[in-house]
UniProtKB/TrEMBL annotation:
Source species, domain of life: Bacteria
Protein name, as recorded: Chorismate synthase
Lineage: Bacteria, Bacillati, Bacillota, Clostridia, Thermoanaerobacterales
Gene: aroC
Residues involved in FMN binding: 119-121, 213-214, 256, 271-275, 297
GO cellular component: cytosol
Keywords of this entry: Amino-acid biosynthesis, Aromatic amino acid biosynthesis, FAD, Flavoprotein, FMN, Lyase, NADP
Length: 348
């Protein structure tokens, strides 16, 4: 499967096109819209979220709530567009450190960095959450469930302290990042492959995770800690009791680039949003003089939103692997292929 997104944060709409979905998949609009609602929530979000109320409009690929094998196109309107339409918005000439502003403007030879930030904005993740929601609907048929858990905000593990920490950052005109854990339950043995670099499941998931705005690191299972341990305390010993099983899951469900039947566990590290109300030092691209970076509006933290986005991109990657492994033009063909494979695995 493949998908593309299009659209700018204050443009008319965001659009996503998914190709390669099997036919006869039930497109549950309530579920998709609820995922979008989850992405919009969370303590520390900025003013934009009180303007938007994200809902999908399916433009193609579905009849009578079922996919027909054709590309699925999704549109999410930006309600804020009405407030920007036809307005003479000022040029952005003071790049924000940490954002795409400066590098994007130089790369594309744009004199107004608004042309960069409009697309670089994490608003684009609304489109990706809608795509991920469709992936989750597909995965449901194979008993695969993607969940997220926030482990840290602003370096703090105690969630009772998060609201106060977020308030403090807000008062200081600052922002906070965090750590998010994704768990994928029900993944069968055998997604991904050891035989080629671009088929390794851990690599594919990492690519998806790192493609999410503001994510700076990803680890799988014991992850970075495993570099500091001896092999005997890292690797998950193998047992047999009618079926193969493990007592530990330090591998995070992936060995040699292949899912091993244990839950897939990964953690993503998100940096603080680079749009600061108390801006950092920058340089004006016209005058070349030292200035403070642009600030219009932003979130103090979007870690809760990022958790939903990460679920979405991981769901996509797993769904893509499921469609490769149990390939079929109709969902029923895929389920038959899946059941046949699971029978073989059981007998191994
Ligand atoms: C976002 C919409 C944006 C920001 C945020 C994510 O709205 P606006 O720019 O109109 O305030 O709240 O964007 C960023 C964090 C960013 O770095 O660009 C959204 O819908 O998630």
């Amino acid at each position: 499967m493949r998908y593309l997104t299009s659209g700018e944060t204050h443009g008319e709409a965001l659009v996503a096109i998914i190709e390669g979905l099997p036919s006869n998949l039930f497109i549950d609009l309530d579920f998709i819209n609820n995922e979008l609602k989850r992405r919009q929530s969370g303590y520390g979000r900025g003013g934009r979220m009180s303007i938007e109320s994200d809902v999908v409009h399916i433009l193609g690929g579905v009849r009578n709530n079922l996919t027909i094998g054709a590309p699925l196109s999704i549109l999410i309107r930006n309600l804020d567009y009405e407030n920007w339409k036809g307005k003479d918005v000022p040029r952005v000439t003071r790049p924000r450190p940490g954002h795409a502003d400066l590098s994007g403007a130089i790369k594309y030879d744009l004199k107004d960095m608004r042309d960069v930030l409009e697309r670089a904005s994490a608003r684009e993740t609304a489109a990706r959450v809608s795509v991920g929601a469709v992936a989750k609907l597909l995965l449901k048929n194979f008993g695969i469930v993607v969940k997220s858990d926030i482990l840290e905000i602003g370096g703090e593990r105690d969630r009772e302290k998060w609201p106060a920490l977020i308030d403090e950052a807000k008062n200081e005109g600052d922002t906070l990042g965090g750590v998010i854990e994704i768990t994928i339950d029900g993944v069968p043995i055998g997604l991904g492959s050891h035989v080629q670099w671009d088929r390794k499941l851990d690599a594919l998931l990492s690519y998806s995770v790192m493609s999410v705005q503001a994510i700076k690191g990803v680890e799988i299972g014991m992850g970075f800690m495993s570099a500091r341990q001896k092999g005997s305390s890292v690797h998950d010993e193998i047992f047999y009791d009618g079926h193969f099983y493990r007592k530990t899951n330090n591998a995070g469900g992936i060995e040699g680039g292949i899912s091993n039947g244990m839950p897939i566990v990964l953690r993503a590290y998100m940096k603080p949003i680079p749009t600061l109300r108390k801006p950092l030092t920058s340089v004006d691209i016209d005058s070349k003089e030292e200035v403070k970076a642009t600030y219009e509006r932003s979130d103090v933290t979007a870690v809760e939103a990022a958790a939903v986005v990460l679920e979405a991109v991981c769901a996509w990657t797993i769904a893509d692997e499921v469609t490769k492994k149990f390939s079929g033009d109709s969902l029923h063909d895929m389920i038959e292929n899946f059941n046949m494979y699971m029978k073989r695995v059981e007998k191994y």
